[in-house]
């Protein structure tokens, strides 16, 4: 099994540096050996600022290159924007431009709105905000300004209101965290889900989580076959066990013991870790494995202590992954830990969701078959460039798909 990750992400310099974790914690960029010779490989991570303002093409394409490769980057603005400059490991405004891959690199393509940056207008460009409620009928979300379609750059305030029998829990999608009201800047089409729990549903103390846990993997009576990964480069999760001290739903969750060490590849096997289940040998009740997870919404609740974020400027991250019947891999987009709304809230239950039909996969191994999934799991990784360590626990609960 090979763990790779490519991330194309966000907006401001702080968040961009977080992207380095894709080259450090989810992609081997050390060396490969063939016939006795070693070839150094490096990763080029590209971000667009602001998100949705344009795109960057690479020549040669790919994102991973042999040492010494010269890569040409061409920035193309979307309607309502113009390319302005490069940042990160490139500078200046020449476009196209080139970079030599003599180390892992992060490049930012900066765009401004047509006729000048900031504010609203966007040269006539508009974006759509789609809002969902989970579970259906649990509550409502009001928008200010109302409407759902906005000029580029508009800041929209979202307010979640629970219906009788429910309480607001958290946001997911293009907004994360638990702040209510919260805001989103419309620099791209966005989708936000307001998550509610039944009244009395806990945020983790004392076991009780507000009613029966009907998820496929709920850890109510056992660890259900979940285990700590022992693959050579993914051993930061050292043990897993059913635990009744915290539960999002029902009376138990899965407690994961973590020894995460930031740093370069010399810190293997502890720069990342995985908790996973081979469903072929441990299927949920009523599920035939391999299972068809195409066009499904896959979710898991996680409890992450504040110290799990590591270095705030280069935070650790977490993601969901899948393995098909031939052990090929597919990893979801990366979720930074801490610093909402740019990362997951800590010291509370937060939900990670993956729509397998629309997810922008961080790593998608050639030939992966989502209709024949054999294993699923949760991965935690050290922030790129961070030397911070985290020795403690994280909890997961209610791994499900609908």
Descriptive labels:
single chain, 402 residues, mainly beta, Jelly Rolls, 3 domains, seven-stranded antiparallel β-sheet, five-stranded mixed β-sheet, 29 strands, disordered N terminus
Description:
The structure is a single chain. This protein is mainly β and 402 residues long. The chain has helices at 13-18, 20-25; strands at 31-34, 37-49, 54-59, 64-66, 70-77, 81-88, 97-100, 105-113, 126-134, 139-144, 149-151, 155-162, 166-173, 182-185, 190-198, 227-228, 237-243, 253-261, 272-278, 297-303, 310-311, 314-315, 317-324, 329-331, 335-336, 349-355, 363-364, 373-381, 389-401. Helices cover 3% and strands 45% of the residues. Strands 16, 19, 23, 24, 25, 27 and 28 form a seven-stranded antiparallel beta sheet that branches. Strands 1, 2, 4, 6 and 8 form a five-stranded mixed beta sheet that branches. The longest helix is centred in the first third of the chain and has 6 residues, at 13-18. The radius of gyration is 21 Å and the shape is globular. Mean pLDDT is 83; it is low at 1-36, 115-123 and 200-207.
């Amino acid at each position: 099994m090979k763990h790779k990750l490519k991330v194309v992400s966000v907006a401001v310099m702080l968040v961009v540096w977080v992207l380095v974790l894709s080259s450090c914690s989810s992609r081997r960029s050390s060396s490969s050996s063939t016939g006795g010779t070693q070839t150094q490989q490096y990763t080029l991570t590209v971000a667009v600022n602001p998100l949705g303002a344009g795109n960057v093409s690479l020549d040669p394409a790919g994102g991973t290159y042999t040492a010494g490769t010269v890569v040409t980057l061409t920035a193309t603005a979307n309607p309502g924007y113009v390319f302005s400059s490069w940042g990160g490991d490139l500078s200046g405004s020449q476009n196209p431009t080139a970079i030599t891959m003599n180390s892992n690199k992060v490049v930012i393509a900066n765009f401004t709105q047509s006729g000048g940056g900031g504010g609203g207008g966007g040269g006539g460009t508009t974006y759509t905000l789609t809002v969902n409620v989970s579970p259906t009928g649990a509550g409502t979300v009001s928008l200010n300004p109302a409407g759902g379609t906005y000029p580029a750059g508009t800041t929209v305030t979202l307010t979640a209101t629970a219906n009788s029998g429910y309480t607001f829990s958290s946001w997911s999608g293009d907004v994360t965290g638990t702040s209510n009201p919260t805001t989103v800047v419309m620099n791209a089409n966005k989708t936000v889900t307001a998550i509610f729990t039944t009244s009395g549903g806990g945020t983790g103390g004392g076991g009780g989580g507000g009613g029966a846990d009907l998820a496929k993997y709920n850890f109510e009576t056992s660890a259900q076959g979940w285990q700590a990964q022992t693959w050579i480069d993914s051993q930061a999760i050292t043990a897993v066990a059913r635990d009744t001290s915290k539960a999002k739903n029902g009376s138990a969750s899965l407690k994961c013991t973590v020894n995460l060490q930031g740093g370069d590849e010399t810190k293997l096997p502890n720069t990342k870790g995985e908790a996973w289940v081979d469903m072929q040998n441990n299927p949920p009740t009523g599920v035939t494995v391999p299972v068809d997870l195409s066009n499904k919404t896959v979710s898991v609740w996680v409890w992450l202590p504040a110290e799990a974020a590591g270095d705030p400027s280069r935070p650790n991250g977490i993601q969901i992954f899948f393995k098909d019947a031939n052990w090929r891999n597919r990893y979801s987009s990366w979720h930074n830990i801490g610093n909402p709304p740019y990362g997951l809230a800590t010291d509370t239950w937060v939900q990670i969701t993956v729509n397998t039909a629309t997810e922008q996969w961080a790593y998608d191994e050639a030939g992966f078959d989502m209709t024949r999934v054999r294993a699923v799991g949760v991965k935690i990784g050290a922030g790129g460039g961070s030397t911070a360590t985290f020795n403690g626990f994280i909890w997961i609960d209610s791994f499900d798909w609908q």
